[in-house]
Design a protein that fits this description.
The structure is a homodimer. The first copy, chain A, is of the alpha/beta class. Chain A contains eight helices and twelve strands. In chain A, helix 2 crosses helix 4. At the A-B interface, helix 2, helix 3 and helix 4 of A face helix 2, helix 3 and helix 4 of B. Chains A, B: InterPro entries: D-isomer_DH_CS (IPR029753), D-isomer_DH_NAD-bd (IPR006140), NAD(P)-bd_dom_sf (IPR036291). Chains A, B: It comes from Amycolatopsis minnesotensis. Chains A, B: Keywords: NAD, Oxidoreductase.
């Protein structure tokens, strides 16, 4: 029997594998000497990762995060490392849509009215017919696009490099003046820092909505504060720069801004997708087939 | 030239028609004696409707509302009446999705935190993987379904009569215990009054979300207040019974309830759809073809 260490007990495990459960909260099992595959508990800090050092028979490590920068240095040479790419995509896309619809249909206004017990009707903007600039067209961008098309919005795709049906990022200045909504789903780092700065924000038409579910650094926060402060632009942000946003930051109190604390990826849709990936990997491991999502 | 009276000036009008604009706000034109087609201004009260009596040459009236009960008695025999069926569907569907996502992704919580300037993360429910009971499967229900499928929810359809892929309303009691979300999109009237009463609400599992974008009378409000009062169920309601909801009503202050004041149909998506319908009707009228959406 090949021993594997798994974070949950509710998994379908091939009969040739002998599974032990370690959830990253309870104490780890003592006998780790013959563990050959270790599926890391999700989001439980560094201790479960350091446990790799107690597994001399290890052949593969499966992380459930997309980024494995903190795991990589602790994985010995010759041991495969697979990541959790895609497991959070749908959750992020769903939250992006929640932010867009909340802004377009003015949910903060209705919630304020509810707090006062006021029944007062008004017309709102809509997502339908809006021209939405999707900046970033990986798996999250594609998931957002499926929602937008279902809602009869017009989607304009932008990615780092132009390809069929997708504009290159260098075309962004020309596209901004005609956008009703801009959704940023770009990674962090120097390449995307200040992607929407004062000049780009000024190019957006009055009333445009800026949505960010990628990384906060992609928007120049001071420039955004200036534009939302006059009420010219609106924003719905799951990520900001800096994070956490300090209590006294002016962004909190802007009337046209909606802020959620970097929680787009953390919803219930993660677990079933993580479970499916782990079960697929267990079947491949048992059959001697190559794992998916191997990094390097 | 055939004279027509239209609510907007930004319409494409066939050359054989002579268009005059009346928006229902400014004073009506004096010379209405030879108007043959009258497109009623939308949502401007009874005065524009009574103007029909000043048009002896009238052959057809186009309303932009779905319900034409108030127009019908004022349309002379022999004059066609067409309604605005479908023009609000997408707006209602979009708002239903806004309510569902706001509840699942806990937007009221984030807005409360924003009001306090608090950055505090937490996991939420999701729409993805949820089993959604769509009660009502006309054009609004179908528009909601397109959104739900884009978001990888499981859709269970319920309509008045069972048909292929759609459960009959008599199966509702058997379906409620396995629903994560119930969306009501049923018309008013005695046939749907109290569709979700104490027994039906009790059949829902703990934490289920009740969404209503149809008519408030379809839910027994007292029974709902009891279930949300204990925190066992959640609700997101664009329609309630009574409307307007009085300022002191207990529903306003329930922590698990989100209320919008019957505004699902009133968004910017109406105008372009209404414009397209009117332009289609003008082309048909000019060509001597039968109008769409004729009632009776």
């Amino acid at each position: 029997m090949t021993r594997v260490l798994l974070p949950w007990s509710d998994l379908t495990v091939p009969p040739s594998l002998d599974a032990t459960v370690y959830d990253g909260i309870a104490a780890p099992p003592d006998d780790l000497g013959d563990i050959e595959l270790y599926v890391l508990p999700y989001d439980r800090g560094i201790a479960p990762i350091e446990l790799i050092g107690a597994m001399p028979s290890l052949r593969a490590v499966q992380s459930l995060s997309t980024g494995v920068d903190n795991v990589h240095p602790l994985v010995p040479a010759g041991v495969q490392l697979a990541n959790g790419r895609g497991l959070h995509d749908l959750s992020v896309a769903e939250h992006a849509l929640a932010l867009i619809l909340a802004a377009q249909r003015d949910l903060p206004r209705w919630i304020r009215q509810q707090n006062r017990g006021t029944w007062e009707r008004a017309h709102t903007a809509s997502l339908a017919d809006s021209r939405v600039l999707l900046v970033g067209h990986g798996s999250i961008g594609k998931a957002i696009e499926r929602y937008l098309l279902a809602g009869e919005a017009e989607v304009v795709r932008v990615a780092r490099t132009a390809r069929d049906g997708v504009h290159g990022i260098d075309e962004l200045p020309a596209l901004l003046p005609a956008a009703d909504i801009v959704v940023l789903i770009v990674p962090g780092g120097e390449g995307t820092r200040g992607l929407l700065g004062a000049v780009e924000l000024a190019a957006l038409p009055d009333g445009a909505l800026v949505v960010n579910v990628g990384r906060g650094t992609a928007i120049d926060t001071d420039a955004l504060v200036a534009e939302v402060g006059t009420g010219r632009l609106r924003a719905a942000l799951d990520v900001v720069d800096p994070e956490p946003l300090p209590p006294e930051h002016p962004l909190w109190t802007e009337r046209t801004v909606l802020i959620t604390p970097h929680i787009a990826g953390g919803s219930a849709s993660f677990h079933p997708r993580a479970k499916r990936l782990v079960e697929t990997q267990l079947a491949r491991f048992a059959a001697g087939e190559p794992l998916l999502n191997v990094v390097d």
